[in-house]
Each structure stands twice: as C-alpha cells, then as structure tokens.
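[Automated response] Your request has been received and processed.

Submitted sequence:
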Amino acid sequence: MTPVTSLGPRTLAGRFIALEPLERRHHADLVEAAKDPGTWTYIPVDDFARRLAWMVAENEAGRLMTFVVRQLSDGAVVGSSSYLNIVPDDARVEIGFTWYTAAVRGGAVNPEAKLLLLENAFAAHYNRAEFKTDARNARSRAALLKLGAREEGILRGHMWMPPGPGRAQGYFRDSVYFSILGAEWPPVEAGLKKRLAAL
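Generated structure:
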C-alpha cells in the first residue's frame, strides 16, 4: 500500500466554488447561511451555532477537516463539507456533514465540491471515500448514485436525530452507506468533469 499523504488543510478551488479550510472569519457567514430550517431536515443538528463550536473543537483535535463552500461568482458562503472518520492507516476517509443553502442546490456547487474533495483524497493515496445519508433523504441518495458512488447497505437505527429545524420530533435514523474506491475513481472523475463542463 502506498502511504497516504496529507489531506490539508488547504484551499481547493474549482470553476464555480472554492473550498476554504474553516477559520473564525467564516463563522458569521456560516451561521447566516445555515438559517433555513429546511437545510437540517436530514442532518442531526438542532442548533447550528452550537454545532459550529463542536466543529471547531473537532477540527482543532484533528478528527475533522471542515471546508467552507464559497461561491466564486459573488463570494457568498453557501455551505460546508468535511472530511470525517479520517483513517490514514486504512487509507479511508468519509466525506460528510455536507449542506448548502437552498439557492445553490441542484446546480454546480455539489458536484464540484465532491470533485474537489475526492480529487484531493485520491491524490493523497486514500483508497476509499465513503458517504452516509439518512435513508429517508431521497435527494441525497439520488445525488450520490448520480455521482457514481456505490450503495453498500443500511445501518438500521444508526443515529439519533433530535427534534429541531425541519423535524417536529426525534427519531433513530437508518443510515445508507455509499463508497468510491481508488480503482473506481477514474471513470467517476471523468463523469463529474463531463457534468461540470456542460454547466
């Protein structure tokens, strides 16, 4: 196995967005972007400002690497995404805790963010990039399949989803896992680049 190298933190820039490592200067813009309750329907967050403090602590401890998504056309902060469950010894990393403002969903932002994060991970010799989503989240499941990730299975009752924005009551979430392996990356990368070139 080729030893993995550092995932960053570093800014990852594309044609539509830049992924900037989370810093204090981003906090106010993130809290503002996170105000839409619909953003959190399938993400276990009841108070984003409190979750942001947790993210900062996890980043400082090296257990999380969060990127702020900045739209290049107007400089607006439109969401964030993270590397989590970073396991260099097994060349495995999860891409998750991803959210975007409603205005940019369904466009170039998510595919380009995934392209940038996956390019960075596979260039660093990670072999497996994994994703998980709420089994109820049809939009996310469809987006991961369109991306080229393979659905692997469901962990039943995997996570507690507390009552909060977009959820009147809590429930135990079934999580669907997806992955892309290093050997599968070249055609997935080509497909993503073809999608983005058409936009």
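Summary generated for your ticket: The CA atoms of residues 31 and 50 lie 10 Å apart. The mean pLDDT is 95.
If you did not submit this request, please reply to this message.
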